[in-house]
Design brief:
The structure holds three protein chains of three kinds. By secondary structure, chain A is an alpha+beta fold. Chain A contains 18 helices and 28 strands. In chain A, the strands form six sheets. In chain A, strands 3-5-1-13-10-11-12 form a seven-stranded mixed beta sheet, with helices on both faces. The longest helix of chain A has 28 residues. The N terminus of chain A is likely disordered. Chain B is globular, with a radius of gyration of 19 Å. By secondary structure, chain B is α+β, with helices and mostly antiparallel strands. The N terminus of chain B is likely disordered. Classes of the chains: A alpha+beta, B alpha+beta, C alpha+beta. Chains in contact: A-B, A-C, B-C. Chains A and C meet through helix 1 and helix 16 of A and helix 2, helix 3, helix 4 and helix 5 of C.
């Protein structure tokens, strides 16, 4: 596998490294961009989903005959139409509709397609449904306690392609153990201090402004679904499995996507729309209301984390134990199981942990399934680790920053999984933020009543290594068309990142690189817009393809110019002989010449990052074992707390982010601003609450508070360039790291300000005032 | 989980005058409701079959020095040049909701919305000793805001025509509210204070109203008594807030726990007092 | 009921119940799908359009209240094949756009706001944006765009 950065790089054409505006912005500011919610076609039917109103029940009776006879109704479908089991890569425990048993409030029971939305809604009301309530399972500790009712009594019969620990309401268990029992006992026996803490974190909802939406059609045995997704091939595979057809029977096409943040990685509405389209013989549109989004579209999981750490007198970590319990919800349609191995890696990839006993259990509950949200478990694991380390520093009598500097991993050391951390610049990142925060402190004065605090947090993060493919073709006018299933969800990774890499590689103008919308019928596999991977993975694939296309262009042009290929360069829209400005040929002419000699010029590139060496022996049940393409970060904040109200004001927020190579600095700043803002929401406001009956309580954007324009502090970013060996032009993933340390930084800074520990998120004014009163 | 109003879309009839609106509402009974800006009613889970739009009733848009027709919007109130006595209503309008709602939501709607504990203009008008003119099939009458709130929460074809508040020289008023985020949301607690202040800022004729804390905004005589005869400043305002917290019974809901609404009252009282004092001669000179 | 609207300078008539949200009429009847419906309860601001000289949330504005003043949607701010409005230009140039779902609402709020407050400061822009939620950008680039558009408008002849 040859990554573009492994080959000699020509003198830069100036595409990489420039803050070019995104080319899709024009259509977006004019309201001309077409999203899934905007799709319309002749004969379109409108679908609506009947969802369970209670969290746990046996379905006693379900009769859709009256609903099917309602005016304008074309078809009603239920679980009888889709009995197949599926799951997001691990345990297959999910059906499209509840069959016999309701496992969460909001679970689909039936769906209808009608001529108008009002008719569809009226038909839902006519479905006859009788439920016999069962005991809800909501509390995480209770869920895994012996004797609790099983959410899936048939769990043992479910197919799981990967072997692992599971049983009863433990949907998955993952362990990482490092060190012998003797070493472990010795560490605790000789420890200067042993500190224990428990932390609790809530669900956080992705809340993209565009809800889930799709339009499905069915023709000649194949489904076509236009949908708002971050991962078209995932939607293809999962929809096919749920419908009981082969993946190639499903074609996924992606229009403009109005945000994802992890919430649009999996199939959700697509299987329902496809079932209705097949039965109705008409295109079917299905769009979530905002209430359905909040109540049913999988959020970041809630979790309880217990940490116990032994340290020596200098505050050096000797051993650490973690027991983490996370909420899978009612089934494994999200990524929560796959990510069960992640907390252990997060705990041990920033700090040196000589001995570890880490366990993560993912519990079934009768609540909506949880799923991926930018940074997955990272934000809460880092919050727990950092708040815990502040406690350790206090008990050990070591300065908070000094404690971190003593424990932070250095280049060449091994991370918790035995993998070598070869290119870390954590200390440099810490110095970067510390320099800028110190400056702030000396120039601002606290007002009389308000309390001030600061915190600094280092972070090692990763880039998803997953596979991707991209093709490039030279058009007859000299432009280049990129075809890929890599999906632009707003980050700019495809619209600017991939295009800039292709332009740079070829030497042509960025404006002459066009990108087709993702279509699983015309583009090869891509692992989706997740884990900060698009510029890296799809960029590498597209860059490799562009490199091959360049060779083809030069080969054809060499014949036309009667020059050696080695003497040619592509500049703008022409191929020219180096040193002979007069001797050149237009790319359009090259394209036409090639057409009738060797054939059209095009190439396909591919990329996957091979797993680095690691110690597989220390992990059991981990589906996530290595930390690919590590990057180094530090965040710092200065906060002010109003002692009368508990309100937290972030005075200043400082970020140092290792991006490998800055392909487009403006887009990087956009990811950092947006990621930090979502992190502030998680730290301060966001809490998708679930009642004791298992129902989601927050059902609109009044009570589920996301940050407004008034809530975002100035964010001072220093981009650190620490090139990645196998990144395109050295680039690493950028989008996830900015959200990961935010809650930790804010919680530690607020705790510093109020002089009391904080062990739960979010730090609402209510929580902070309560903590102040209990000091 | 269908979108509000998706099943049943109400029809709208446009009233031509106050009398016309009242007559139509009387005829429709529980099947009808008056419609001003619609920002509250359009989110209702159970809208009536027919709305009587007041949009074209010119009388409802009339404004005087100290009176406002029911259709005056929050944005218009926020931009109005008002004497210091009426300052609280301006602050309440200016800090409520966000532009898209302030541009449409009306004074009449704010006073008449059912179950709207956080309505910002209500505590302001209560503190300002405002009266409202109400049209019914039996004719028009003037009543105080408290009495109107009771009527509006019940039912009957009573149409709010206008609100008027006295604005004597030497009277000052202010409004304060607290939100979890910087703004753009319902108040956790809101306070309006109106008082006659002498040169030394000693308060008399004090009226205080607290919104958002209980199910409906209400006057708070205990806080009024505490402020009467004392210098209005942050200290006295905080003390009045503590007195109010003693007597109010706070709501728990998804926006805030009840204990918190009470706990922050001293601060919100202080904000209202500061807003009040901002218009006094010493501050403005 | 029939309602006569003027949308983007064009007179049109729709036959719908009067309490039908203006956003639904614009999108489904007049095929102006630039206006987005992000929440349906008037909170996210992606449905913002201009009614007369006011920015309004069209998902909670009954079409029956939209007859008396002209409606301008994001499609009406600039000709489809013509130069962009200064706010649109600045949103592109200052990187105020990511996923774009909030963008039409942001553009309409800012264009309306700058007509009323031609020379705003940062805080005024933020206050004006309180009704428009963005989940991607963290708002800074949108505020930058507004301030830059204000400057550009001042420099226009």
């Amino acid at each position: 596998m040859t990554a573009p950065s492994d080959t000699p790089v020509r003198p830069a054409a100036g595409a990489v490294g420039r803050s070019i505006p995104r080319p899709d912005a024009d259509a977006k500011v004019r309201g001309a961009a077409v999203y899934a919610v905007d799709l319309a076609e002749a004969g379109l039917l409108h679908a609506a989903v009947l969802r369970a109103e209670i969290a746990a029940a046996r379905i006693v009776r379900l009769d859709t005959r009256a609903a099917a006879a309602m005016p304008g109704v074309h078809v009603v479908v239920t679980g009888a139409d889709a009995p197949a089991l599926s799951g997001m890569l691990v345990v297959k425990d999910q059906t499209v509709f509840a069959i016999d048993t309701v496992r969460y409030a909001g679970e689909p029971i039936a769906a209808v397609a009608a001529d108008t939305p009002a008719q569809a809604a009226a038909a839902l009301a006519a479905v006859e449904l009788e439920l016999e309530p069962l005991d809800p399972v909501v509390d995480l500790h209770a869920a895994v306690a012996p004797g609790t009712r099983l959410v899936h009594p048939d769990w043992a019969t479910y197919e799981a392609p990967v072997a692992g620990f599971r049983g009863g309401n433990v949907a998955w268990e993952s362990r990482l153990e490092k060190g012998t029992d003797e070493e472990w006992a010795a560490a605790f026996a000789t420890a200067h201090r042993v500190i224990s803490d428990e932390f609790r974190v809530p669900r956080q909802h992705q809340t993209p402004i565009e809800p889930h939406a799709c339009v499905a059609t069915y023709t000649s045995g194949r489904f076509t679904v236009h949908t708002s997704t971050q991962f078209p091939h995932s939607v293809r595979t999962r929809t096919a499995e749920l419908l009981g057809v082969r993946p190639s029977a499903v074609r996924v096409v992606v229009p403009t996507v109005g945000g994802g943040f992890g919430g649009k990685l999996d199939a959700m509405l697509e299987p329902i729309a496809c079932l209705l389209a097949r039965r109705a013989g008409r295109p079917v549109r299905l769009v979530n209301t905002r209430e359905e989004e909040l109540a049913t579209a999988g959020p970041r999981e809630n979790a309880i984390l217990r940490l116990r750490t032994a340290v020596d007198a200098g505050g050096r970590i000797l051993a650490q134990e973690a027991d983490i319990l996370t909420d899978n919800g009612a089934n494994s349609s999200g990524e929560t199981l796959i990510c069960a191995g992640l907390p252990a890696l997060v705990l041990g990839s920033t700090y040196r942990i000589p001995l570890a006993r880490y366990r993560t259990r993912v519990a079934y509950t009768t609540t909506p399934p949880t799923a991926a949200f930018r940074g997955v478990g990272g934000p809460y694991v880092v919050f727990a680790q950092e708040a815990h380390l502040d406690h350790v520093a206090r008990e050990a009598g070591v300065d908070r920053l000094e404690l971190r500097l003593r424990n932070v991993l250095a280049a060449g050391e091994a991370m918790i999984n035995g993998q070598e951390l070869d290119d870390t610049i954590l200390v440099q990142a810490l110095e970067s933020v510390q320099r800028r925060v110190s400056w702030t402190r000396s120039t601002t004065e606290a007002t009389s009543r308000r309390l001030r605090g600061t915190a600094v947090v280092p972070l090692t993060w990763l880039t998803n290594p997953g596979p991707g493919e991209a093709s490039v073709a030279l058009s007859e006018d000299g432009t280049v068309l990129v075809s890929t299933a890599a999906t632009e969800i707003g980050t700019g990774a495809v619209q600017t990142g991939v295009r800039q890499i292709v332009a740079e590689r070829l030497g042509i103008d960025v404006d002459d690189v066009l990108v087709a919308n993702p279509d699983t019928d015309t583009a090869g596999f891509d692992n989706g817009a997740q884990g900060s991977r698009t510029t890296y993975g799809a960029g590498n694939a597209a860059g490799q393809a562009a490199g091959e296309l360049r060779e083809q262009i030069l080969h054809t042009a060499a014949g036309m110019l009667e020059a050696a290929e080695a003497d040619l360069e592509i500049v703008g829209d022409r191929v020219r002989v180096v040193g002979s400005p007069g001797a050149s040929v237009a790319l359009s002419a090259v394209s036409r010449a090639a057409m009738w000699s060797g054939g059209p010029l095009s190439a396909t590139g591919r990329f996957v990052s091979p797993p680095p060496e690691f110690d597989a022996g220390c992990m059991i049940g981990a589906l996530f074992t290595t930390i690919n393409a590590t990057s180094s970060h530090a965040h710092a904040a200065e906060v002010e707390v109003d002692p009368d109200t508990g309100e937290v004001t972030i005075l200043r927020y400082v970020v140092a982010q290792d991006v490998g190579r800055a392909v487009n600095p403006a887009m990087i700043a956009g990811q950092v601003n947006g990621g930090v803002t979502q992190g502030l929401g998680y730290a301060l406001y966001e809490d998708l609450r679930i009642g004791p009956d298992g129902r989601v309580l927050d059902r609109d954007l009044e009570t589920y508070r996301i940050p407004t324009a008034l809530d975002v502090p100035p964010i001072d970013l220093e981009i650190l360039e620490n090139p990645l060996r196998n990144g395109p032009y050295g680039a690493k993933g950028v989008a996830e790291p900015p959200i990961v340390p935010v809650a930790a930084v804010v919680a530690c800074a607020v705790a510093d300000a109020i002089g009391a520990p904080l062990t739960e998120l979010p730090l609402t004014p209510f929580a902070v005032l309560a903590a102040l009163r209990q000091r | 989980m269908t979108a509000p109003g998706l099943l049943a879309r109400s029809e709208i009839q446009a009233a031509t005058s106050v009398d016309d609106a009242v007559a139509r509402l009387a005829e429709l009974g529980t099947e009808g409701a008056p419609l001003a800006g619609g920002t509250w009613l359009m989110r209702s889970a159970r809208p009536p079959r027919t709305f009587i739009s007041l949009q074209r009733v010119a009388e409802l848009r009339e404004v005087s020095v100290n009176g406002w027709g029911a259709l005056v919007t929050h944005a218009e109130l926020a931009a109005a040049a008002l004497p210091p006595a009426l300052h609280a209503v301006r602050t309440a309008a200016r800090t409520s909701a966000f532009p898209q709602v302030r541009n449409v939501a009306t004074l009449g709607g704010n006073l008449s919305a059912r179950g709207f504990a956080e309505a910002d203009l209500v505590p302001a008008l209560l503190a300002l000793d405002a009266t409202v003119e109400v049209a019914t099939p039996a004719g028009r009458q003037r009543t105080d805001v408290e009495a109107y709130l009771r009527v509006a929460q019940s039912s009957g074809p009573a149409l709010l025509v206008s609100a008027t508040a006295p604005a004597p020289m030497g009277r000052f008023s202010g409004y304060g509210r607290l939100t979890v985020r910087g703004g753009g949301e319902y108040a956790i607690a809101s306070v309006a204070i109106a008082a006659d202040l002498d040169g030394a800022r000693v308060a008399s004729t004090v009226r205080v109203a607290v919104g958002s804390v209980e199910a409906r905004a209400r006057r708070c005589p205990e806080a009024e008594a505490l402020l009467t005869g004392t210098v209005l400043d942050e200290t006295s305002a905080r003390a009045a807030g503590r007195a109010a917290a003693e007597v109010l019974t706070a709501r728990d809901d998804l926006l805030a726990p009840g204990w918190y609404r009470l706990e922050v009252l001293p601060v919100v009282f202080a904000r209202a007092a500061a807003d009040c004092l901002a218009a006094t001669p010493e501050e403005t000179s | 009921m029939n309602y006569r609207l003027t949308v983007n300078g064009r007179e049109t008539e729709v036959d719908v119940p009067g309490a039908t949200p203006l956003a639904e009429v614009l999108r489904d009847h007049l095929h102006l799908r630039g206006t987005k419906v992000g929440c349906g309860t008037g909170r996210c601001g992606s449905c913002t359009v201009r009614l007369g000289d006011r920015a309004v949330a069209s998902c909670i504005l009954p079409v029956g209240l939209a007859e008396d003043e002209p409606v301008t949607t994001v499609e009406g701010l600039a000709a489809p094949d013509g130069p962009r409005h200064p706010v649109q230009d600045a949103m592109v140039a200052r990187h105020g756009v990511q996923c774009g779902a909030c963008t039409p609402g942001m553009v309409m709020t800012l264009a309306t706001f700058l007509d009323a407050v031609p020379d705003p400061d940062d805080e005024q822009v933020r206050e004006a944006l309180t009704g428009n939620l963005c989940r991607c950008t963290g708002y800074h680039t949108i505020v930058d765009a507004a301030l830059s558009a204000a400057t550009a408008r001042k420099d226009m002849p």
